[in-house]
Amino acid sequence: MRARGWEIRGTTRSPDRALALEGEGVRPFLFERGRPLPAEAFAGVTHVLVSIPPDEQGDPVLDRHGRDLRRLAGLAWVGWLGTTGVYGDRGGGWVEEDTPLDPSTARTDRRARAEAAWQASGLPVHLFRLAGIYGPGRNAILQLLDGTARRIVKPGQVFSRIHVEDIASTLEASMARPNPGRVYNVCDDEPAPPQDVVAFAAELLGVPPPPEEPFETAALSPVARSFYRDNRRVRNERIKAELGVRLAYPSYREGLRALLPIETGARTRS
Q1: Quick count: other Cβ atoms within 10 Å of Cβ 240?
Q2: How would you classify residue 250: left for phi > 0, otherwise alpha for psi between -120 and 50, otherwise beta?
Q3: Angle 23-165-36 from CA coordinates, rounded to 5°
Q4: Kind of pairing, strands 183-186 and 47-50?
Q5: How far apart are CA 103 and CA 232, in angstroms?
Q6: Tens digit of pLDDT per residue, the chain (270 long)?
Q7: Rg of the chain's alpha carbons, rounded to an integer?
Q8: Contact 172, 233 (CB under 8 A)
């Protein structure tokens, strides 16, 4: 977007990250619930993307700056990044955007309540429910190279996922075809067991995959174990039919193949 002449402003909690953003051509502002943005951050803004998760008090962006956003005469589009976790456990069944929400953890319940708050805000909000994100620096290939990959097996368990570049293309498509109030699932075409993803990454690297570990006896943190509580398959037809999205990585196979030279090249250079 910047290469096409857009002015980009961004927020961070870290002064060091603010300096890095400035070097990337982004005008940075420090923000967190206890440190609201100055008025100059909103001057002339037409599009707002919110990737900050809600906290126990609610959504910090909406709470601190909902009024400022509503004052923007030229505001055409607000995108809010949520999670498919708000659907809860469906026993491996399919969900779509109109499926009633049934969050099963405090984390996803906060997401569902934040969704409702944004929908009631009177702003031109578009909700994007993201599946598990992967991409450069965050994938099974890198986990294998770092020796942290595991193959946890829970029979019947699948996860939906999405490459970060396909998230970006979906957001851009929505900006081109705004439809305030609309909800979109953002995921690839193939929900898959997590152990299969690791095994495919190992095949690409030409290394043996880690041994399978039964979920019941695997040593997992409470947070890691909580991700296996829900089992569902997520449909993505709406982003294709309404936004014209064509996924660059319709499954983890295409995504990991594209990431292989990136991760192995970075390892070689380091």
Answers
A1: 14
A2: alpha
A3: 50
A4: unpaired
A5: 12
A6: 998 999 999 999 999 999 999 999 999 999 999 999 999 999 999 999 999 999 999 999 999 999 999 999 999 999 999 999 999 999 999 999 999 999 999 999 999 999 999 999 999 999 999 999 999 999 999 999 999 999 999 999 999 999 999 999 999 999 999 999 999 999 999 999 999 999 999 999 999 999 999 999 999 999 899 989 999 999 999 999 999 999 999 999 999 999 999 999 867 665
A7: 20
A8: no
Tokens of residue 215, six digits: 């979920």
Q: Tell me the backbone φ, ψ of residue 118, rounded to 5 degrees.
A: -65, -40
Q: Which residue is associated with the tokens 């923000």?
A: 31
- Classify 127 as helix, strand or coil: strand
Answer whether 79's CB lies under 8 Å from 50's CB.
Answer: yes
Spatial CA neighbour of 159 closest among 82, 233, 256, 84: 233
| Closest residue by Cα to residue 162 from 181, 185, 134, 138 | 134
Q: Which helix (H) or strand (E) holds 242?
A: helix 237-243
Task: Report domain extents, the chain.
Answer: 31-269
Instruction: For residue 29, give the amino acid letter.
Output: F
And the tokens for 182? 């609309």
Task: Please tell me the pTM assigned to this model.
Answer: 0.95
Q: Which CATH superfamily is domain 31-269 in?
A: NAD(P)-binding Rossmann-like Domain (3.40.50.720)
| Region class of 190: left (phi > 0), else alpha (psi between -120 and 50), else beta | beta
